[in-house]
Amino acid sequence: MLKHVLTALVLLAASSILPAQTPPAHEPFRWGAASAAYQVEGASTADNKGKSIWDVYLDDDHLAGPGISGAVAINFYDRAQYLKDIALLKGMGLTSYRFSISWPRILPDGLGPVNPAAVAHYRQFITDLKAAGIQPMLTLYHWDMPASLAAAGGWENRDSIRWFTRYAEVVFANFADQVDLFVLVNEPAIERDLKTVAEERLAGQPGDLRLLPDAAHLAVSLKTYNHILLASASAKESFNAKGYKGRLGIALPLLPALTAPNASPADLAAANFGDGVLNRWFLDALYKGTYPADILALAKQKGMQIDVQPGDAAKVHAAHFDYLGINYYAPAFYRQPAGATDVSAAEYYRPEGVDSAFNGPVRPDQFKALLDRIRIDYGNPTVFITENGAGFPGDDLLVHGAVRDVRRCRYIVTHVNAMQQAIAAGSDVRGYHLWSSHDNLEWFSGYGGRYGLIYVDFDTQQRIPKLSASVYARLIRGEHLTPEACGN
Fold first, then answer.
1. Contacts of 246 by beta carbon, 8 Å cutoff, 6+ apart
2. What is the pLDDT of residue 488?
3. Is 81 exposed, middle or buried (0-12, 13-18, 19+ CB in 10 A)?
4. Angle between the 160-175 and 116-131 helix axes, to the nearest 10 degrees?
């Protein structure tokens, strides 16, 4: 019975879904792509920009290796360059563009005063997007914590709730007249994982990405997640109190939790634990007003200091976010290591012999299963796909002036089809944003792993739309494609 129950929970079987609902009438579907300020802008000291923690990680500490820096990236801060890029996006038929603004550009020391040059730059960028018929989706925070606030503890400090609310109020005051969709924060769990990588590399350790926090980092991760959710709720409360018009949400990296076919009860428990930490911790707070009882009980049993105070999850729920942003790349496979007796030892792994991208196994069926789960278990909230995409080794070779990224192309076709199947089943999905619009700086992975629709020569800044860009344009036009449209 235990195995049956957990398998149903973990695999999210489509057979258990409720009768399909008819999606409500709403605005035209938004077809878009996405980027993040630090990964594309460059100009790391222009217009009085303050230093972010990523400037520290890469330029001061060299944690991505020698010569890897965001000082230039893909030069997207330069208007002459980004106008050419907007023209490429318009040519694909995009109607939405999700981008982030840099906290230390807007508030160079993290808290104030406001930098008018940065405000003017982003207002101009938004104006230029809209002139091309592309609606802005503005992300306030895509990991570029001001260095001064990072030194004061960053999200581990409960004062971060106040810091972020101050920043959000500045953003709303300067951009709410131009923007109707705001993403408050992006991928809290992945950002915390990257901070662990940085801490370990600074200590001389390999610093590998874990995805699921290990036992030594579980307490600080849960504390961080709670503070970020509370900060987002506080910003939403301020937005409502000021009477601004628009919709606010959070972009979460949701990972369906899977196991091997021959999973043991311990493996199934490991998957349930991974689901609790990386999925249910956020979704339960947003839509049920509680944190998962099993994760709280484990934290209490181990005496973890996670700074979850009475009423915290209820405050998150009471914010009534206007939509859920979903970043989906791949499911997560879990197992319990041999000899481990504690579920917190659960580990994420990649099965051998399966088709995998840089971010994990290619499973469009799990994209639909995830959207079904949000509809069935969490009240069918409005959803925007804020990131979905893939990069594959050897897929982005420039040959005779062209890039035939066949594997990415197939990934896009199959995942858009999966999303459309979920919409047909009743999921209230309002938009889809590919990650990413351009090849760019992939954090500690540097410039090696490419995810973009647009190929970038990082030495010359030349842009070349890939095969995937042309196929995505056809999907936007409403063509019903199969993977064969991508060729061989």
1. 176, 179, 180, 181, 182, 239
2. 87
3. middle
4. 50
CB atoms within 10 A of CB 24: 8
Contact 213, 277 (CB under 8 A): yes
Domains and CATH numbers, the chain: 2-17+25-486 (3.20.20.80)
User: How far apart, in whole angstroms, are the C-alpha atoms of residue 336 and residue 265?
Assistant: 9
Give the model confidence (pLDDT) of 391-450 as tens digits. 999 999 999 999 999 999 999 999 999 999 999 999 999 999 999 999 999 999 999 999
Helices then strands (H, E): number in the chain?
A: 17, 17
Dump pLDDT digits (tens) for 46-73: 999 999 999 999 999 999 999 999 999 9
DSSP 143-177: S--BHHHHHTTGGGSTTHHHHHHHHHHHHHHHHTT
183-192 per-residue burial string, b: 16 or more CB within 10 A, e: under 16: bbbbbbbbbb
Strands 135-141, 181-186: pairing is parallel
Cis status, amide bond into 253, omega within 30 of 0:
no
Cβ atoms of 360 and 350 within 8 Å: the answer is yes
Write the CB contacts of 198 (distance below 8 Å, at least 6 apart in sequence). Answer: 57, 61, 63, 207, 444
With residues binned 3-state (H G I as helix, E B as strand, rest as coil), the percentages for the chain, rounded to 5, are 45, 15, 40
Q: How confident is the model at residue 7 (pLDDT cuts 50, 70, 90)?
A: very low
Structure tokens at 12: 């999210």
- Residue 149: count other Cβ atoms within 10 Å of its Cβ: 25
Across the range 306-320, mean pLDDT stands at: 98
On the question of pLDDT at 240 being above 80, the answer is yes
Specify which residues 435 forms β-bridges with: 34
Closest CA to 357 of 316, 410, 424: 410
Place of tokens 């810091």: 163
- Whether the pTM exceeds 0.85: the reply is yes
DSSP string, 285-316: HHHHSS--HHHHHHHHHTT------TTHHHHH
Task: Report how far residue 443's alpha carbon sits from residue 246's, in angstroms, rounded to the nearest whole number.
Answer: 30
Active site residues: 187, 387
CB 325 within 8 A of CB 363: no
